[in-house]
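This section describes the prediction task in plain terms. A model, or a person checking by hand, is given the sequence of a single protein chain and must write out its three-dimensional structure as a string of tokens. No templates, partner chains or ligands are provided. The sample shown here is typical of the held-out split.
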Amino acid sequence: MINEKVFEGKYEIIKPLGSGGMGTVYLARNVKLDSYWAIKAVNKKNSEKVDLLAEPNIMKNLNHPGIARVFDIVEDDDNIYIIEDYIEGVSIEDELKQIKRIQEKNVINWAKQITESLIYLHNSKPNPIIYRDMKPSNLILNKEGKVVIVDFGIAREYKKDSQSDTTYIGTRGYAAPEQYGTSQTDARTDIYSLGVTLYHLATGKGPNDPPYDLRPIRELDPKLSVGLEYIIAKCTKADPNSRYQSAFDLLHDLNNIYKFDKAYKRRHLIQNTLTVFLIVLIVGFSYLTWAGFKQIAQEKLDEYNSMVNQGIELMHAKQYPDALNVFEQAIAKMPTRIEGYKETSHTYLNKGDYDGCINYLNKTVFPNVQNATYDAEIYYILGTAYFENHDYKNATDNLTKAAELNLSSVTYRRDRAVSLARSGELDESMAQLNELKNKGLGEDVTWYVSGELARAQKNFAEAESDFTKCLNITQSEDLKRKAFISLAENYKDSKSILGDLAVQKEIAILERAKSDLKDKSDIAITEMLGAAYYDNAVNTSGNRNELFNKALTNFNLLLTQGFSSRSYIYRNVAIIYQQIGNFTEAEKTLLQMRKLFSEEYTCYMQLAFLYADIENRKANELRNYQRTYDNYLQAVKYAPQGENTPSIQPLANLISELKSKNWIT
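The expected answer:
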């Protein structure tokens, strides 16, 4: 119940914010996230004629800075509770009460912002969304001075085949005439209500104030511009066919409102009356320019989309540098669209450059792309990058944001539950698992999450059983891949119980993954398989070279597929070559590593060991450890703690020994 101090165990009710036609709104604080939300409580009995889930069902997929977002929906016998953005600021209705009327420059500025939000709504897929309740009380001016539309209680989707929709719904005076008839409302309905709202802002008189009609605004205040009068009059025509036919058209006039001014028209007339022929040309050109404006914009968008699709194809082909280059060109063409940024971060993620992905999103996308903070997929990519970097706290934080922005995504909830388990928050992870089960969101998903919980509790046999059950029933390629990886990691974790059998089972499941998955060269599985073969080789007395060569095959595959952002892959390859006595290839690999990662101290450390190994195989009189010493000095130079870096100590001990025997002076 909303009258409880803590609603649903996590929302602390602070105070009522107000009441509207669809219910009462409360300010609440999420006690777990320490964030503030608005909770709308709608009584089912008082709203029998309205689809109470219309608002959340419509809003849960909306993603625009000018529109409040829905994050959660709770239902009991009496009410539906909608948890949505709390927009800190002041309603434009309250602003009107304080200052009576709004300066024209602010009216025009706010009108542009609201119109851009309507353009987004009216162009939503699969169906346009008609707001139907535009009025000052549903517009919030936030702390940044931006207008945000709230309360989608009577919004609906426009469907071509529908001849009518809900009748007698709206706010009297602001609602368009067709909202009280039997015809279907459309985008022009919102344009009418916006016109009435602008009338109220500019004149200080609402539609329900004397003289109870919408008169030309310059009759009330001659100082108001001709352009604003024209725009409001056209928006509020009784016949929808006489209004602006789209929010695009309305925004065009708002952006060119100065052209309605008499002085402008006079200058324009003088400039264009040189000859009748020139007038015809200019009129014709103006018409063609306006007629072609949308075509040019569409062509630019088509080019942008084509470039993004080309980049995606290159990414899937593992041609990562080319993909990044194409996305960069797409972003340069349309820097305000988010798709290019999103696919760039996808590319970093796919090529295993998790640090690059994290830095790109945090330092480039979030600070510069306005809609990024409203995009669930952006947070999911970031959360996944943190997860792959084993930073489970940051992974959980971002996967939580993704799940809150997209309540319908099972994937986001699933991965959040797994990240919670990995970060040790077992009770919260179990709660998420139970929620997934209660909602019937797939046995394969719940077996996978259950396996992760068992693994986190070191119940390795139970985890093995759960992951296997998931693999046996899932049809999802993504989930199958995750279950293979988790099962392989589970075998690795259980080495203290299984002994040498652990790595053999790890190799077997990874080989099965390469066979069963569509992507035969998955980066994560290839890397794990290379490491498993190497571990098996160093811990066995037989067929070591065969196992080393299998490890080499997998690690070299990573390098040929563009997975070259991780320096340790080169070092792993060099170590294996050194183990099997192929010093030429070991040196070649390390020199390539040095070229790419000139300040990576482990490269110089491994070169020092390699050169020492080479010299040790020579006759005493032919030995020269100078290259060993030179690379040791470089390793110390770039190591985070110099010669005190723990991983350098074995090499430091070798250098001390060589000095004591006068091999190095």
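For orientation: The CA atoms of residues 574 and 586 lie 4 Å apart.
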